[in-house]
Amino acid sequence: MPLNINYVLGSRLEPSFSERIHRLEHCNALDELRLSGAELERHQLLTTTERGQDLAIALPRHQHLFDGAVLLLEEARAIVVRAAGERWLRLAPHSISDAIELGYHVAKLGWRVRFEGEVLFVAVEGRPENYMVRLGQLIWSRRVRMSVLEDRQSDEAAAC
Question: What is the b/e burial string over 89-108, where b = at least 16 CB atoms within 10 angstroms of the residue's CB?
């Protein structure tokens, strides 16, 4: 029978949680729920933690899952969300007009993005080739350079 989660307690970085979670981590009593970027956006989810605990998550609309979200904190165990690494398309336009056209297409398609300077990153959900086809002439004419990157989540090193 799954454990019902109806709200997020807070962030593992909050002072009221961080020390207790750190202690549970050292006692090997911290369970993690690894979620993709798309799963983090959901309010309802049936899933399983790293240690095999089935969860039925049903959050209110005003709450969201995030990397470090504390879902359960008891005396002998805790469950914390960890964002799984994602793949991103790195899109680098050659000119301002190329950047404007790229922005128009990406916005029209509703893709999840992040910005770093003059480079646009698009979260890959599926095959990168599908994104190339959608951007078509911008990619094939080399007006926008594209590469695929892995976003590696670094695990926190435990201090002894």
Answer: bebebeeeebbebbeeebee
Express as a percent the part of the chain with pLDDT over 90. Answer: 59
Identify the weakest region by mean pLDDT among 50-54, 98-102, 155-159. Answer: 155-159
Instruction: Name the pTM for this structure.
Output: 0.59
For the cut 60, the answer to whether the pLDDT of residue 160 exceeds it is: no
* Greatest Cα-to-Cα distance within the chain, rounded to the nearest angstrom: 59
| Cα(21)–Cα(12) distance, integer angstroms | 7
Q: Note the Cα 120 to chain centre separation in Å.
A: 17
Residue 151, classed as helix, strand or coil, is strand
Question: Burial, 146: exposed, middle or buried (Cβ in 10 Å; 0-12, 13-18, 19+)?
Answer: middle
How far apart, in Å, are the Cα atoms of 111 and each of 46, 100, 107, 134, 141? 24, 15, 7, 11, 22
Burial of residue 80 (number of CB atoms within 10 Å: 0-12, 13-18, 19+): buried
Give buried/exposed letters for 22-53 (b at 16+ CB in 10 A, else e).
eebbeeeebbebbbebebbeeeebebebeeeb
Token match 């480079």: residue? 119
